[in-house]
Specification:
This protein is of the alpha/beta class. The chain contains 7 helices and 16 strands.
């Protein structure tokens, strides 16, 4: 028997139970210890996004150990500690079967499973972080993925701005404040990790022509609410998996992230969903 946290199209999360699992061709089965509930999970729970499949399994990053491998899998072995990037959902289940293309092995002994989960949420690819260097940058959102961008921007960018009302992690994401209703084209680079329709519709107005907008993959289906197509803005989606980069960020901000992100068991989470959050699936 295994369990998962899901939503029916968009609604209050529920816990479902299942009797078995199978690792198919090119897949591994992972016994999940912790999962991350991100902005996309919040969007499904608050009906900002409607899931194509029902019920929709929540959780955009999961960490655990491999307990079975499918046919054709030779890069993984049972017992490996792995991170699964399920950015469109599916990580919040006690047994997760996932394509190896979305999994990385991370057996660093100095970190426990929760450490590894947080490192994974910060593991933004360096080529994207480099974009903010030397630019006027706006960082806005309430997902952990904005932290690496803010950290690099504070060191190497010309100026860094935030919109406090729509941006979390004020102890880390620091910069000059600007209103979401500002109408000047000020920024070379805008980083967005929010599913708030107001943010998606208004923030692109602040981009200069030929600017770059880096957005969380969860925002992909919400971009239609924005008028960014009226400008020559380049859209790039946040990519994860650079665990070395994530580790360096986590080492610096570990205490703040752990203290300000709730660690919940599934029952407490479905009773009162909180986003972002870490879900302990070990006793589910």
């Amino acid at each position: 028997m295994y369990y998962r946290i899901a939503v029916n199209f968009c609604d209050t999360p529920i816990i479902q139970s299942f009797r078995g699992f199978m690792a198919r061709l090119g897949e591994v089965a992972v016994q999940v210890s912790y999962a991350y509930m991100s902005i996309i999970d919040e969007a499904y729970a608050k009906c900002l996004l409607i899931a194509k499949d029902s019920p929709h399994v929540m959780g955009t990053v999961a960490v655990g150990k491999v307990i079975a491998v499918g046919i054709g899998v030779d890069r993984f072995r049972e017992g490996d500690r792995v991170v699964a990037f399920t950015l469109t959902g599916g990580g919040a289940q006690s047994i997760l079967t996932v394509s190896t293309s979305n999994v990385v092995v991370y057996n660093a002994k100095e970190f426990d499973y929760l450490d590894v989960l947080i490192i994974a949420t910060l593991s933004v690819k360096r080529k994207l972080l480099d974009i903010v260097k030397g630019a006027n940058v706006l960082v806005v959102g309430n997902d952990l993925s904005i932290i690496p961008f803010a950290h690099v921007a504070q060191q190497y960018s010309l100026k860094v701005f935030t919109i406090p009302r729509y941006t979390s992690w004020s102890d880390i994401v620091k910069g000059e404040h600007i209103s979401i209703y500002e109408d000047r084209q000020l920024f070379d680079v805008i980083v967005i990790a929010s599913c708030d329709p107001l943010v998606i519709s208004l923030v692109p107005r602040l981009a200069k022509d030929d600017a770059i907008m880096i957005v969380h993959p969860a925002v992909r289906n919400l971009l239609k609410f924005s008028d960014f197509n009226a400008k020559s803005i380049t859209i790039k989606f946040i990519q994860f998996g650079d665990m070395v980069s994530g580790e360096s960020i986590y080492t610096e901000f570990k205490d703040i992230i752990r203290s300000k992100t709730p660690l919940l068991n599934p029952q407490n989470f479905i009773a009162k969903p909180v986003f972002p959050a870490f879900i302990d699936l070990q006793n589910l």
